[in-house]
Amino acid sequence: MKSDDLLLYAVTDRSWLNGRTLESVVESAVAGGVTMIQLREKNLGHDDFLNEAIRIKKVCDEHGVTFIVNDDVDIALECGAHGVHIGQSDMEAQKARHILGDDRIIGVSASTVQQALDAQAAGADYIGVGAIFPTGTKTDADSVSLDTLRSICSAVSIPVVAIGGINCNNILKLKGSGISGVAVVSAVFAAADVKNAASQLLTLAKEL
Question: How far apart are CA 73 and CA 197, in angstroms?
Answer without folding.
Answer: 30
